[in-house]
Amino acid sequence: MASGSDSGPSVPELRDALDEALRGGESDWAALDRAVGAVEQAARTRPDPQLIALAEYGVAALTGDDGDRQRRHGLAGRLLAAHAIACRSGTADPTRLAKWLLRLRVEHPDPPQVRLADYLAALGETGLAAYREGAEALCAALPVVGYGEAPRYDRRRWAVLAVVDELARHTGDVDLRVRLLATDLSSGWHYLRVAGVLQEAGRVAEALEWVQRGLQVTGKGPARLRLIDVAVDECLRVGWFDRAMELRERAFRESPDLSTYLRLRGLAAEDERWPQRREDLLRPLHENAARDVRQSTALVRILMWEGEQEAAWRTAQQHGCTDDAWQALAEERAERHPGEAIAVYRDLVEHELEEDGEDDTRIADMLEQLRLLFTRTGQPDAFSRYLDGIKSRHTTDRELLDELARRGL
Fold first, then answer.
1. Less CB within 10 Å around the terminal CB: N or C of the chain?
2. What is the H or E stretch that residue 215 is in?
3. Do the Cβ atoms of 147 and 185 come closer than 8 Å?
């Protein structure tokens, strides 16, 4: 390579050498390595706008899917590092640099990866503002993934999101973070993420607005309950107790179970109106228990938690409940009403044995409880006959029989 000056080849000479090496392609990696090395040396010793443009040209030429991608991207990464060094000399136009960086990141999302931190000094306030403006425009142009839609992420979308995410992390800008998260609203959890960011920033009204938007589109489920949790926290933070209670009551009416009841009960601990509110809330469960096992189970669980064991037992006897609730009732009644507990456990064992892929461990646990209860009521022989009957009906179920043998049953 001819020398354009005592300090090294001129930029046109560097360009000629790089072009020649690129034309030689992958048949002459040594030539490409020398050409890139010469640009690296020039970036350290005599950076100028022409050299910056040359590094950009080389990065674009080496970035792509053809040939030995790993080696090409490695060379492109070296040129990008040289480009960052040259830009830090203060010779780069900040606005032009911002546009080039965005174009590289979006149009060539594969390596080398641009790191914003490497260019902050070169960009300065003017360049960073231009970079942000461009990033926001790219983000705004992305189609929003609506609720219930399947997210589809092509390479460009991923690249734009990565740009905005990095910028938001660098600036700590909450609005930018919200714009980023709001590009995907495919589930209640995504609305929750936006509300959470605003909640952490202390922006109560906006967090509640996103919660409300999420509640309008989400159905029943854990995401909806977490949205209500966020809303309640923010209402309490600003002293809106009645609104927080309304949200908790709404959650319970939509998903009546012990967990939503306990959340409501905890909030209402100091509310003198609670007895009447409780009556109003539980009335629909009493009315619907006969035709909805989910509501009868919720009522049984709530009554048990509140210590109304006899009322819970009567409700289960009259309207039924899930097997898990029956088992909780049996455990509670075992001490004072062992005969009733025996009847419940026997029914539960039969239900489990009838299931495809029955839970052998659970069956053995319940049989152990039955052995204790039969013994306590003076009927050990009756238990032996009962257990023998189960074994004789399931002689081919080796896993069950092995589990029973392991327990000494």
1. N
2. helix 204-217
3. yes
